[in-house]
Amino acid sequence: MPVSPLAVAAMLACARIGAIHNVIFAGFSVGSLAGRINDAQCKVVITFNQGLRGGRVVQLKKIVDEAIKICPSVQHVLVAHRTDNKVHMGDLDVSLEQEMAKEEPVCAPESMGSEDTLFLLYTSGSTGKPKGLVHTQAGYLLYAALTHRLVFDYRPGDVFGCVADIGWITG
Fold first, then answer.
1. pLDDT tens digits, the chain, 171 residues: what are they?
2. Which GO terms describe its cellular component (predicted)?
3. Is residue 109 part of a domain?
4. Where residue 19 sits, what CATH number does that domain have?
5. Is 137 exposed, middle or buried (0-12, 13-18, 19+ CB in 10 A)?
6. Which of 6, 100, 107, 164 is close enough to 171 for a disulfide, judged by CB 3.0 to 4.6 Å?
């Protein structure tokens, strides 16, 4: 998914239900996407039908369709419709909007240990095969809060905006 409120909501929803998430930069190739999906043994992929990047339309669903052909662990692809463009919905595909309409707006959070995995984030691969770095529940959140406070001198009532892509650690 590209940077969007829905992508942030998906990450937070995964954290709430105790599912490990792995945000992948929406500009990656089929091979880069498949490599990360396979390495993490992802069971579910969430994507948009299309994305907009640099003023052009990106066929995200088509990229995911090609990638999952070589990703046997994937059981479902949740497809959010960001544009009016119709896309082929295969056997693994589920409309995210339809699934969300079936659920209550709030669910009880899953109790997680401080060292349980919160998310994986892959290195760039500039020195070899990208490596999936494990970020734990307390470790990542505590360090992010601490560095945010100390580096940016964040105080109660301040507003902070970050324009980094959510597929990178600063996003």
1. 888 899 999 999 999 999 999 999 888 899 999 999 999 999 999 999 998 888 899 999 999 999 999 999 999 999 999 999 999 999 999 999 999 999 998 999 999 999 999 999 998 888 889 999 999 999 888 888 898 899 999 999 999 888 888 877 777
2. mitochondrion
3. yes
4. 3.40.50.980
5. middle
6. 164
Q: Given this model, what pLDDT does residue 148 score?
A: 86
Alpha-carbon gap, residue 46 to 171, rounded angstroms = 18
- The dihedral through the CA atoms of 15, 54, 37, 135 has a sign that is negative
Separation of alpha carbons 77 and 60, rounded Å: 12
Provide the domain limits for residue 41.
5-152
Total tally of structural domains belonging to the chain: 1
Give a yes or no: residue 69 inside a domain: yes
Q: What is the model's pTM? A: 0.89
What pLDDT, on a 0 to 100 scale, did the predictor assign at position 41? 97
Residue 17 token pair: 């239900």
The verdict on residue 166 lying in a domain is: no
